[in-house]
Structure formats: C-alpha cells, structure tokens
Amino acid sequence: MDFLKRSLYRGLAGLAFAIAGASHACDFAEVRFVTDFNTARLDGCEQVAADKYRLHLRPENLPINPSPWYAFRMEAGEGLMADTTIEIVLVSHNGPARYTPKVSLDKKRWAPLPYSTNDNRMRFNVQLQPERAVYVAGQEIIDGTVYADWLASLPATGRVFELGASTEQRALLAYEHRVDQNAPWLVLIGRQHPPEVTGALAMLSFTNTLMFADTPEFVKFRDRFNILVVPNMNPDGVARGNWRHTSNGVDLNRDWRARKEPESKLLHDYLTALEKAGSEVVFALDFHSTHNNIYYTMPPEYEPENGEALQNPMLVRNWLNDLAAAVPWEVREKPGHNPSSGVFKQYVADNFAVHAVTYEVGDTTDRREIVQTADAAALSLVTRLLAL
C-alpha cells in the first residue's frame, strides 16, 4: 500500500515546476525545497523523474562575476514514506558551477557531499528522512545573526556599534577597540561578496587571535593600536543569498571610487572622520574568497593619487615573507594597481597613503589550514606593525 501511495504522489507531481521566491518553497509530493532563512537561494525547481530534481540558480542581475550561490532546506513531503535518496542536479545559469555541496542538520555543523560536475551542472545525492529536515548549501552558512553574536563575544574593552544602515535598512555592524584617539588604526573588513565564506572564516580566526591571544606581541599591540572590524560589509547581499552584488545590483568592491552605495560611503565617512580628528589609518585587510589562496597587494613603489608617498613601502612584502616562513604551504602575492577599479585596497592607498591587502582564501581550502594561516598572519602582521 505504501508503495502504491508513494507512486501516486510521484505521478501527480509529474514534471511540476516551481519558482522559489515569495512562497519560500518549491513543493513536491515527496520533498519541499524551502528558502525561508537568511542566505537562502534557489531560483527554480523541477522534478524530472522519480526521486530526481533539477534546481536552478540565476544571478541577481547582469553583468556579474559568476559565483552561483545556493542554500536551501529539504523537508519531507506527504508522499515520502521511508528514507529516500534524492538526486539533485544544480543548474547554474550565467556561470559555471563553483561552490561544492555541503549538508547540515542544524546550519552549524557541515559535512561535504560527494558530487560530480559538468560545466554549469553539479550532481549530488541527499538522504532524506520523513521526520528530519536537512540543509544544503554551497558553503557553511554565516549570516547576520552569526556575525552579531560573534561581535558581541569580542572583548568588552571594545564596543559594538552601527556604522549605519544598508539600502534595505539592515545594520552595518562594527567593533571598535580604541586605546587612544591618536593611536594608529588597523582596519579589517569582510564579506563584500556574499558567497565568499572561506574569507569570512579567515577573518573570524584572524580577529579572534588578534583580540584574545595573550602573548606579549598581541598584548602590546592592543595597548598601542586602535582596531576597527566590519565583518559583513554587504548585509543585504548576504541575507538575500546574492551571488556577488548588493541589493542595488552593485559590486561593492568596485564602488570605492564612486562610493554610491550606502555601505561604502558609511565606512568612508567613518575613516575620514577618524583622520580629521587626528587619528591615522596605518593598514587595512579585506577578506575574500576565490579559487586559490592569494594576496592581492599594492606595489611597494606605488604613488598614491593624493600625492603622498606610500608609507612603509616594504611592509606588506616583509609581512608576507614572514608568513611564508611560518606556514608549510605557498604564500602567493600578486601586486597590482588600477586607480579606476574601485576596489578597497586601491581606495585605502589613494586616500590614506598606506598599504591594504585583499586577503583571498581558496573556496575549497582545508578549514584547518584557513585557521592556521590566519593565526600566523595575525602574529606576523602584529610583529611588523609594532616595529614601525
């Protein structure tokens, strides 16, 4: 009887097609694909055979640097009578498959799923049970709530505050460790591009080491330097599950010259006010993800647009050499500049005449390597900055 009932449900489902959106779900007889949580993203679902579904991923707007993101919850439908293996084919429109599938029962602990790819398609299986929902995503989910809780866990010697609000009125949260108005500032930002979660993991580890390590170097650094941390520069894009852009369809890391987006303008205004009050930004890091670990830097000989010489021109080269000596894997640097690009590292150099680095982490970099590198990067950078 269960077999007949299940077959009936499958027959009724047929080749049904649904768009994930306002309803926050694609409903079929044996499974529901739900997108009712922050970072969730699906752009269409269809059943193509028994226990087989095709899910579609489409960008928020075009043109775009393709990073097809997905995150959804799978729930058993009324037609699911027993544990069932569901086959999923993800189709990435306007871009190749990039983020490999992971599964979780609680959005906290994630495990990789075996998969295969063919250009813009990714195929994998998910074991579904009648009484248990599972989450599937391209990377671990780090959303606005995770950031808020993490910021609140940082030392009470600093403060959590709002730089302002995004286009959709989400808080642009920051943490400030201020020892003295005239002390130099280290600036850390992240998540300009929503799916770049490995960069976020590096930033969390780097900042935790910076703020909690009790070795003499870190204690001395916190006594002598101010620190500003803005971990989620694009809260709208992260909440929406965007591939790349803000809610206005703008690549935030191309907006630092024009500063038309509220997020870039808010941070610019804050940093400018610090300098006008007598403070000095001395270094900045911008955490991202790409296909491989790499550090995009400003050339030591670069001459900023403001006419000043780039301060401490060999700082970054020396820091990365120290880092390379501290970790057992390659540390790749790629210097470059383009004043019209609108990227954050260029903006920092041109406006404050100091170094900034785009700290890129590979999409599939081992999570232990991410933590080990971030810890070593924090120590080597602190040591170099203390020596200025």
CATH superfamily of the largest domain: Zn peptidases
Backbone CA Rg: 23 Å
| Average pLDDT | 93
Uncertain regions: pLDDT < 50 for 5+ in a row? 1-17
Most strands sheet:
8 strands, mixed
The proportion of residues forming helix, as a percent range, comes to: 25-40%
Whole-number total of structural domains = 2
- What oligomeric state best describes the polypeptide chains here? single chain
Task: Describe this protein with a few key phrases.
Immunoglobulin-like, 2 domains, six-stranded mixed β-sheet, eight-stranded mixed β-sheet, alpha+beta, 388 residues, 28% strand, Aminopeptidase
Descriptive overview:
This protein is an alpha+beta fold. It has two domains: 7-137, Immunoglobulin-like (Sandwich); 144-386, Aminopeptidase, CATH 3.40.630. It is built from nine helices and 20 strands. The strands form three sheets. An eight-stranded mixed β-sheet has the order 13-14-16-15-17-20-18-19, with helices on both faces. A six-stranded mixed β-sheet has the order 1-4-5-7-11-10, with no helix packed on it. A six-stranded antiparallel β-sheet has the order 2-3-6-12-8-9, with no helix packed on it. Helix 7 (315-326) links the parallel strand 18 and strand 19 (333-335). Helix 3 packs across helix 9 (367-386), helix 4 packs across helix 9 and helix 7 (315-326) crosses helix 9 (367-386). The longest helix has 20 residues, at 367-386. The chain is elongated. It starts with a helix and ends with a helix.
